[in-house]
Amino acid sequence: MYQNIKQKTDTRTTISIHLAKTMEMLSMSADEVREQVESELSINPALERIDERICPTCKRPLPQQGICQFCGVPKSDSDHENIVFVSPREDFYSGKYSSYSNSYMDEPDVDSAQKEDLPTYVLRQIGPDLLEDQKKIAAYLLTGLDEDGFLTTSVHEIANYYHVLPSKIEEVIKLIQHADPAGVGSRNPQEALLVQIQHLSSIVNIPSGTKELVEESYDLLMHGKYREISKKHALSVKQVQNIEKFIRENLNPFPGRAFWGENIFPDDRDLDTFHQPDILIYYLNDDPKNQLVVEIIMPITGFLQVNPIFKTELRNAPELKAEEWKNDIERASLLVKCINQRNNTMVRLMQILVTLQSDYIRHGDMSIKPITRAQVAKELDVHESTISRAVSNKTVMLPNKKVIPLASFFDRSLNVRTIIKDLVKEEKKPLTDAKIVDILSGMGFDIARRTVAKYRAMEGILPAHMRNVINMR
């Protein structure tokens, strides 16, 4: 009976370790998986990499160039389903990773591979100051920034995800906020301005009362209510105007849109640029009428296996080495299984995402559907946290070569924000938030005024009265 209980306990422990490792690997980007594999190969003699061109999905031999001729093509002439498969990494680096997408081969986006994106730029600055357990948190926060450089996930949600106190998340956020561009990683424009004021206070003379005005009268300041502010803070109207001028000329409420690092010229900026995407989406034969092809980039070359010779030698291992060798084999086997599980989960996830968001992929932001992680989790019969991990730290290159976070597929505000942006672009007279609410209502969108104000701010659009002032200049 004791033996049976012990076996059950050992089995549960093994399953728990396997699950934890799979979930950890699922949340990693392709580059992070590659680094982990390279590290394990360097220390574990039981893990072996076979440098043969084998398809990660079906295990068939690959041609010298291009994709798998079984996984990367329709199953028949009448098959119009989207094609989703795992692609070997060396094809991606060589620029030959799609025999069906000539645009990727003929027009490689050189800048995409060379320019440094904002998350990487910030992480490189704060990296030396991060403790080991803070690195994953920092990467999670940075890869979730929106185009304005703001956090998109609540501190409590991230704390629950990593099973740490919210204060631990705040520590990392503070490090991020004081990197260049100052204020990145803030939750809103007001917080970004306060961070920048603190950052500049030791460098330049800041008008007296600037911090207090931003902290206590931000909305009044944004609406140009100088007289109300002057009464509230016992300042002259001229002093308030000087503070507003200082903010306008020296601070940026949207730090992600500032010029940072080597991106000092507007023409050189491309905040949608990442080093290499984790997933490629394009049209079969480059024809927009055809189905979508999805390549999930395999983070390693060749394929991994447990060294068969090492397994055989375990039977004859010296007593002092037997336990160590056994652990090496178990660790190698676990890594191989987890990578396979990661690939399977990513394939299933992308199959449903490209089906649900086909219009978004083909036609742009206006066509995005409001889907949730919970909805996709139910469809795939997995826990919602599995979808969250699969989505985190991943980027996708769309058919138009725009590289976006995979999380954008779940951005329910994207189409409304695009409409607001277009309305403001075409306006003859500045539209108030209330007027935009009315227009959206006529289009079938039930959106509150404060939500319109939030979406407008996310797009870097000033309030109507401030747009009016700018137009009069």
What report would you give on this structure?
One of its GO terms (cellular component) is DNA-directed RNA polymerase complex. GO terms for molecular function: DNA binding; DNA-binding transcription activator activity; nucleotidyltransferase activity; sigma factor activity. It comes from Flexilinea flocculi. The protein is α/β, with parallel strands linked by helices and 473 residues long. It has 3 domains: 2-106 and 277-408, no CATH class; 116-272, no CATH class; 414-472, Orthogonal Bundle (Arc Repressor Mutant, subunit A). It is built from 23 helices and 7 strands. It has a 5-stranded mixed sheet. Helix 13 (226-233) crosses helix 14 (237-250), helix 20 (414-426) crosses helix 22 (449-458) and helix 21 (433-442) packs across helix 22 (449-458). The longest helix has 38 residues, at 319-356. It is globular and about 90 Å long. The termini are far apart.
Count of DSSP helices? 23
Element-level helix/strand string: HHEEHHHHHHHHHHHHEEEHHHHHEEHHHH
- The structural domain count equals 3
Please state the average pLDDT score. 78
- Taking all Cα atoms into account, the compactness measure Rg is 26 Å
Instruction: Bin the helical content.
Output: 40-55%
**Outline type:** globular
First and last CA, distance? 87 Å
The description of the largest β-sheet is: 5 strands, mixed
Number of E strands: 7
The parts where pLDDT drops under 50 for at least 5 residues are 5-15, 91-115, 261-275
Structural class: alpha/beta
Strand order of the largest sheet: 2-4-3-6-7
**% residues in beta strands:** 5-15%
